[in-house]
Design brief:
By secondary structure, the protein is an alpha/beta fold. 45% of the residues lie in helices and 18% in strands. The chain contains 35 helices and 33 strands. α28 (714-735) links the parallel β29 (703-708) and β30. The longest helix has 26 residues, at 588-613. The protein binds adenosine-5'-diphosphate and magnesium ion (MG) (2 copies). One magnesium ion (MG) binds next to loops.
Length: 882
């Protein structure tokens, strides 16, 4: 197989399907060529060579010959010669990995210049200024990327020479002496700048391969799950010049708005500039489209014909790829060139709108639209926003780079973000501008604020990719790294102070500002969720304890309540008092009287739930925690409570002592209370059915499901089921009529999974409580795991807590076994999962694959679960897209 593939200027060896071999950039340059778009010619050295380069510690044999031949062909196509003292061919050397790693790797522009060819370029172009401007860019890039001299050393010279001026203010003589100063930096660093263009090329290619293995590139691959073996290609491409003055410039654009998904070209450009400048955030760019934010004249206004051409090409690319594109272009003296296209990164909000719009436009189908949504990212659509009613003091305003509100302590350096993150302290990272070294800090900060840079600056692009609130180009603030503070007008904000940023408006606010969950606008989310529901098999329910939660869950599309925890119903002040009397009581009559006082309170709460849910299933878990949780634990509270209950303090202490447990998690709780103090469950069951009968009588459908927690033995459930049925029938008889109901159990002990076949004989449904089941299976409690878990994590024994990432190979096997055994004796058994894992896409996929009936999660995760359920079903039935 060849090592080198050519592209551009009407003819290409490759195409878009060859990304693994040609890298994303190379394959797309070939594809754009095939589409007839204006791509400067060049050639791609394959990713395979990258592998060989690292395996052999250098160029594989034959590569030199192929590069020489490709270069000769390129010279022929362009009509210029590499190293020619009169009309030199200049090239860019561009990295291009198989999987895009934006900003991670290196590119060198204007390669082929030296002290001789620069004069030739000056003569040939008739523009010495331009020639020396290109040379100074090349020397800096070569020094930084190839020779590894830190760019700050070049920047120091830049600052000294420029003062308050910009490069475009320097004339050719000044640029020339500047280049000499840059070369002196290289010599001072003990390095040699090669004057021979072929040597430059060889080293530049090596450097691009080398950039694949930098720490930051490896970190990026690790956090994005990109295999190390993928490799990078190297693209060598004839230069076109956006820095030629006149009708020249360079820019970056998206075929749709990457922040909100609105249709139409969105992007930025700079007149008389080269490549990286728009992205680097050193000059504030102007918008492509008139009316968009930015500094200076829009491309649409400055070069209307070019704008129309660009708009047309971008539409073509999007229609061709059937996907939103992120493109890079350069205009050389009135001629437009396309330099890159790739799938555009976007916020979750934009992803939803773009997917729905593209279906309407006939570009993709509904399944495809769903496939492009990462369910986890939907959380970001439901990200907090600043409450409209909030009191806020806006101290500065920048560009709205990535929506969502974030609040945290101000930190100026990424390592400190990491430190605070480890102490659970939220932070907002404040920088002049960010660079790839900041990635780790950006990953864990709540939000990012930069003083410089535009909508396509590093900070903006990376933050959007991460779905992180971000404000950039905030020129209102003056950052002083040395003193660790920033000024915003009269306000001084020091390290550690709280600020709030709004990435949707660009506002920076002092202190903690009240936030709200956002509403999805335009009905895009609803549409997408509708498509998801039509493809999902798993039903999504919500965990909700109150009417308010239930209403929220219903609004977000829950098909029932999978877990109503009744604990809080006992904590209502009146109920708590009665509960304490019940626990303290030593005769059955006063116990019964106390419970009698709790009953109407619970009945009212159940009534509210049933009214909201209108016939959808509502699974109610009977009391789960140990009784002592209702009694005070601190001494001062004990005397208060003793007074309130009208008993002696020492009597209360005695009762407390009697209830004390060495290990409450494994103690007298759940069904065990049901067995020893049956009155409590009977009261709850009565409250449930009185509420249900009452609501049913008003003509509203009701579907209660009574759930007994912490069952380990079939005998426990048999006993409690009989009790429950007896009370339920009693109440229904009193009302003369009542709703259909079911009785089931929570499966959260390993023994229950083992004996599921027997337990299922007494159950209409199982609900796996994966939190407790995980703790019981591992044999640790979440309250104590902090003592050893960090070590387990550090040693790689358990990379993530099984309480947040479901342990499919351990606990998951118990769930599967419990389900199968349960259904073996009760074919109609309904099975679901409730708890933290119910809203996690990976866990949902597992639940789909083992054939559960439903998952239940917190209300705000319901939309995520709906999309995850659809994706899991599509994956399982192989009606999938990949
Ligand atoms: P990255 O992968 O970081 O985006 P690129 O290889 O795309 O790096 O190069 C960055 C920028 O350099 C491009 O957007 C483009 O503006 C400029 N550039 C690259 N190659 C050329 C070229 N042949 N002619 C003119 N500009 C170029
Ligand atoms: Mg780059
Ligand atoms: Mg690029």
């Amino acid at each position: 197989m060849p090592f080198v593939y050519s592209f551009g200027d009407g003819k290409a060896d490759g195409n878009a399907t060859m990304k693994p071999l040609l890298g994303g950039k190379g394959a797309n340059l070939a594809e754009m060529t095939n589409l007839g778009l204006p791509v400067p010619p060049g050639f791609t050295i394959t990713t395979e060579v990258c592998g060989l380069f690292f395996a052999q510690g250098g160029w594989p044999s034959g590569l030199q010959d192929e590069v020489d031949a490709a270069l000769a062909a390129l010279e022929g196509r362009v009509g210029k010669k590499f190293g020619d003292p009169d009309r030199p061919l200049l090239v860019s050397v561009r990295s291009g990995a198989a999987v895009s790693m934006p900003g991670m790797m290196d590119t060198i522009l204007n390669l082929g210049l030296n002290d001789v060819t620069v004069e030739g370029l000056a003569r040939a172009s008739g523009d010495p200024r331009f020639a020396w401007d290109s040379y100074r860019r090349f020397v800096t890039m070569y020094g930084d990327v190839v020779l590894g001299i830190h760019y700050t050393r070049f920047h120091r010279v830049e600052e000294e020479i420029l003062g308050t001026r910009a490069f475009n203010d320097l004339d050719s003589a000044e640029l020339k002496s500047f280049v000499m100063r840059l070369k002196a930096v290289i010599t001072d660093a003990g390095q040699v700048f090669p004057e021979d263009p072929r040597e430059q090329l060889k080293h530049a290619i090596d450097a691009v391969f080398g950039s694949y293995n930098t720490h930051r590139a490896r970190y990026y691959r690790k956090t994005h799950g990109i295999p190390e073996t993928a490799g990078t290609a190297v693209n060598i491409q004839a230069m076109v010049f956006g820095n030629m003055g006149g009708v020249s410039g360079t820019g970056v654009g998206f075929t749709r708005n990457p922040k909100d998904g609105a249709p139409g070209v969105f992007g930025e450009w700079l007149p008389n500039a080269q490549g990286e400048e728009v992205v680097a955030g050193t000059r504030t760019p102007a918008p492509i489209r008139e009316g968009e934010a930015g500094e200076g004249q829009s491309l649409q206004q400055a070069m209307p014909a070019i704008f129309v051409e660009l708009d047309h090409m971008m539409r073509r690319l999007e229609a061709h790829y059937r996907e939103m594109q992120d493109i890079e272009f350069t205009i050389e003296q009135g001629k437009l060139y396309m330099l890159q296209t790739r799938t555009g990164k976007r916020t979750a909000l934009a992803a939803v709108r773009i997917g729905v719009d593209m279906v309407a436009e006939g570009l993709i189908d509904e399944t495809k639209a769903l496939s492009r949504i990462n369910p986890k990212d939907l959380e970001l659509v439901l990200r907090p926003v600043i409450s409209p009613a909030a009191k806020k003091k806006v101290i500065a305003k920048g560009l709205d780079a990535s929506p969502g509100a974030a609040c945290g302590r101000v930190v100026f350096n990424s390592n400190e973000v990491q430190e605070l993150y480890e102490r659970d302290e939220p932070t907002v990272l404040v920088r002049l501008e960010t660079s790839p070294e900041d990635i780790q800090g950006m990953t864990v900060a709540q939000g990012i604020l930069t003083a410089r840079g535009g909508q396509t600056s590093h900070a903006a692009v990376v933050a959007r990719g991460m779905g992180k609130p971000c404000v950039v180009g905030c020129t209102d603030i003056h950052v002083d790294y040395g003193r660790e503070l920033f000024y915003a007008g009269d306000t001084v904000i020091r390290k550690g102070d709280w600020i709030t940023i709004d990435g949707g408006t660009g506002e920076v606010m002092e202190g903690k500002v009240e936030m709200l969950s956002p509403q999805s606008e335009g009905g895009y989310m609803e549409k997408l969720l509708g498509w998801a529901d039509a493809r999902a098999r798993l039903q999504v329910r919500a965990n909700a304890d109150t009417g308010v939660d239930a209403a929220k869950a219903l609004q977000l599309g829950a098909r029932g309540i999978g877990l109503c925890r009744t604990e809080h119903m006992f904590f209502q002040p009146e109920a708590l008092k009665a509960m304490r009397r019940m626990i303290i009581a030593d005769d059955p009559q006063s116990r019964a009287r106390a419970l009698q006082d709790i009953l109407p309170i619970q009945r009212e709460m159940f009534t509210e739930l049933f009214e909201v849910m209108r016939g959808l299933p509502v699974t109610i878990r009977l009391l789960d925690p140990p009784l002592h949780e209702f009694l005070p634990s601190r001494d001062e509270d004990v005397s208060d409570v003793a007074k309130e209950l009208g008993i002696r303090v020492d009597a209360l202490h005695a009762r407390l002592e009697a209830l004390e447990e060495a290990n409450p998690m494994l103690g007298h709780r759940g069904v065990r209370v049901g067995v020893t103090t049956p009155e409590v469950y009977r009261m709850q069951v009565r409250a449930i059915f009185e509420a249900a009968c009452e609501v049913a009588r008003r003509g509203i459908a009701v579907h209660p499901e009574v759930m007994i927690p912490l069952v380990a033995m079939p005998e426990e459930l048999a006993r409690l089921r009989a009790d429950t049925e007896q009370v339920a029938e009693e109440v229904i008889a009193e009302y003369g009529n009542g709703p259909e109901y079911t009785i089931g159990t929570m499966i959260e002990l390993p023994r229950a999974c083992v004996l599921a076949a027997e337990i299922a004989k007494h159950a209409d449904f199982f609900s796996f409580g994966t939190n407790d089941l995980t703790q019981m299976t591992f044999g640790f409690s979440r309250d104590d795991m902090g003592k050893f878990f960090p070590d387990y994590q550090r040693l790689g024994l358990l990379p993530e807590s099984p309480l947040s990432v479901f342990d499919t190979i351990g606990v998951g096997q118990l769930v599967q076994m419990g389900t199968e055994r349960g259904r073996s004796t009760n074919a109609k058994l309904k099975v679901g999962v409730c708890g933290e894992h119910g809203g996690d896409p990976k866990s949902i996929e597992f639940c789909e694959n083992i054939g559960l009936n439903y998952v239940s999660c917190s209300p705000f995760r319901v939309p995520i679960a709906r999309v995850a359920a659809a994706r899991a079903a599509l994956l399982r039935t192989k009606r999938y897209w990949r």
